[in-house]
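A.,

Following up on our hallway conversation. C-alpha cells first:
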C-alpha cells in the first residue's frame, strides 16, 4: 500500500468537503425547527415536512445517479449536484413560507441524491487500488463528524444569528466546491452508456422512497399505528420486484453483479448493514440520554458529544497502519468486539459518573466506530471491477440510506418498547441503558460474520502480507 498521490488526495478532499456540506445540512436543521416554525408562522411539528421531503426526494433520485454519471460524466454530474444543492440552499434561506421551504428542500434532496454516489464514483475512478484505503479514509470522515458538529453549529447560528444562516452558510462552500471540482477533477464517461431503464428507475425509486418513509414514520409515530408498517412492507415488496426486473433485463439501471462479490456483499448487506444500523442508533441515543436521562440542556448535551466527535477524527491517522499490520479480517473482528463493548459501556453512564469516565467511554466509542466504518467502506470496493463501479456505488448509497434510517428507527423502537412494558409516557435512564446493551450485542453478533472472510481479504488494498 503506497501513499495517496497528490492528485488523488486533492480529489478525495474535494469530494469529502461536498459530503460534509451535505451531511452538515441534514444534521443542522434539527436544532432550528422551533425557530423556523415561529418565523414561518406554523406549528413546530409541521416543520417535519422539511426533513421528510428532503429524504423522499433524495431517495427518488439516487437510483439514476450511476446512469447519469456514465452518460454525461462523473465530474459534470458531481458539479451539477453541488450547484443544485447550493441554489436550493439559497432558496431555503430566503423562504417566506412552509411551502416555499418544502419545495426548496425537495430540490436540495435531488442535489444530495446525486452527490454521494457520484462523488464516491469520482474517487474510485481516480484512485489506484493500492491507494484506496487512504482515499476512503478521507471521504468517510464527513459521515462520522457532520451528525455531531451539525447540532452544535446549528444551535450557535440559530441563537446568535438566524436559522436562515444554517442554509446560507452552504453558498460560499458550494461555490468553492464547484470551482475546485471543475479545476482539478477529470471528467470520465462510459464509452457505451446504455439507454435509460425507465421501468427499473420507477420500481427502484418507488421502493426506496416508500421504504424510507415507512421507516421514518415508524421511528417518530406510534408504533401501534399500522400505516408505517404497511408502507415499509409495500416498499420492500416493490424492492423485490425491482430486483427481479434488474436480474431479467439485458440493460438494467443497476447491475447487481457486485452483490456476488463476497467483500462487497458482506460490507453492505450482511455484517456491514447490521453494524451500520446498530452504530447509527448510538449518536441518536446519546444526545437524548444527556437531555432526558441526565437533565442537561441541548448545549451541554452537544458539548459532551464533542468527545465522541474527537474520537471519530482521532482514529484517522492510525487506521491505515493498523490495517496494513493486521489486515481487514483481523481488524474488523477485534475492533468490532471492542466497538460492541464500548457501546455497552454507555449503559454505565449516569448523572453521577465522573467526567473522566464519560470522556474515556465516548472517546473510545468514537475511535472504534471510525475504524470500523473506514474498514468497511474500503473493503466494500476492494474487489469491485471498473464495470461494476457505477452500479455498486449507487447501490451502496441506497443501502446506506436505508440502514441510517433503520438505525434511528431501532433507537426509537428500543426506547418505546421498554416504555410500553412499564406503561410510561416518558423514557427513563433504565430505558437508555437497555437500549445501549441491546445495540452493543447486535454489533457483537454482526462481528462474528467476519469469520467467513479469507485472511487475505482486501490485501491488495491494505498492503497486509499475512
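Then the amino acids I'd put at each of the 466 positions:
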Amino acid at each position: 500500500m503506497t501513499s495517496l498521490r497528490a492528485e488523488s488526495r486533492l480529489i478525495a478532499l474535494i469530494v469529502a468537503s461536498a459530503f460534509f456540506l451535505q451531511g452538515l445540512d441534514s444534521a443542522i436543521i434539527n436544532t432550528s425547527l422551533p425557530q423556523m416554525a415561529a418565523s414561518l408562522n406554523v406549528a413546530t411539528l409541521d416543520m417535519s415536512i422539511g426533513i421528510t421531503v428532503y429524504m423522499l426526494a433524495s431517495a427518488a433520485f439516487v437510483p439514476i445517479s450511476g446512469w447519469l454519471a456514465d452518460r454525461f460524466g462523473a465530474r459534470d454530474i458531481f458539479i451539477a449536484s453541488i450547484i443544485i444543492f447550493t441554489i436550493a440552499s439559497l432558496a431555503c434561506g430566503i423562504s417566506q413560507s412552509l411551502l416555499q421551504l418544502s419545495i426548496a428542500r425537495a430540490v436540495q434532496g435531488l442535489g444530495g441524491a446525486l452527490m454521494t454516489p457520484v462523488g464516491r464514483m469520482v474517487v474510485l475512478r481516480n484512485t489506484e487500488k493500492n491507494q484506496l484505503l487512504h482515499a476512503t479514509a478521507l471521504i468517510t470522515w464527513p459521515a462520522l463528524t457532520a451528525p455531531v458538529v451539525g447540532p452544535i453549529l446549528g444551535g450557535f447560528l440559530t441563537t446568535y444569528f438566524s436559522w436562515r444562516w444554517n442554509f446560507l452558510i452552504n453558498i460560499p462552500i458550494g461555490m468553492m466546491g464547484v470551482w475546485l471540482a471543475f479545476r482539478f477533477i477529470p471528467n470520465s464517461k462510459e464509452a457505451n452508456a446504455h439507454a435509460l431503464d425507465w421501468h427499473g428507475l420507477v420500481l427502484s425509486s418507488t421502493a426506496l422512497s416508500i421504504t424510507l418513509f415507512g421507516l421514518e414514520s415508524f421511528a417518530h409515530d406510534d408504533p401501534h399505528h399500522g400505516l408505517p408498517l404497511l408502507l415499509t412492507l409495500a416498499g420492500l415488496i416493490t424492492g423485490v420486484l425491482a430486483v427481479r426486473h434488474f436480474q431479467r433485463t439485458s440493460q438494467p439501471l443497476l447491475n447487481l453483479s457486485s452483490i456476488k462479490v463476497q467483500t462487497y456483499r458482506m460490507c453492505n448487506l450482511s455484517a456491514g448493514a447490521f453494524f451500520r444500523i446498530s452504530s447509527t442508533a448510538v449518536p441518536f441515543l446519546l444526545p437524548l440520554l444527556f437531555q432526558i436521562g441526565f437533565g442537561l440542556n441541548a448545549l451541554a448535551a452537544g458539548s459532551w458529544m464533542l468527545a465522541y466527535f474527537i474520537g471519530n477524527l482521532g482514529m484517522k491517522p492510525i487506521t491505515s497502519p493498523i490495517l496494513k499490520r493486521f489486515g481487514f479480517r483481523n481488524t474488523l473482528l477485534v475492533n468490532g468486539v471492542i466497538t460492541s463493548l464500548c457501546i455497552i459501556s454507555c449503559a454505565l453512564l449516569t448523572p453521577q459518573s465522573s467526567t473522566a469516565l464519560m470522556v474515556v467511554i465516548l472517546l473510545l466509542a468514537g475511535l472504534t466506530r471510525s475504524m470500523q466504518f473506514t474498514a468497511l467502506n474500503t473493503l466494500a470496493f476492494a474487489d469491485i471491477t471498473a464495470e461494476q463501479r457505477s452500479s455498486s456505488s449507487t447501490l451502496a448509497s441506497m443501502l446506506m440510506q436505508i440502514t441510517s434510517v433503520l438505525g434511528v428507527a431501532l433507537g426509537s423502537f428500543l426506547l418505546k418498547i421498554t416504555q410500553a412494558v412499564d406503561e410510561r409516557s416518558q423514557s427513563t435512564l433504565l430505558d437508555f441503558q437497555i437500549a445501549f446493551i441491546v445495540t452493543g450485542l447486535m454489533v457483537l453478533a454482526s462481528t462474528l460474520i467476519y469469520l467467513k472472510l479469507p485472511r487475505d481479504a482486501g490485501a491488495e488494498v491494505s498492503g497486509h502480507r499475512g
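DSSP finds 19 helices and no strands in the chain. Curious whether your intuition agrees with the design.

B.
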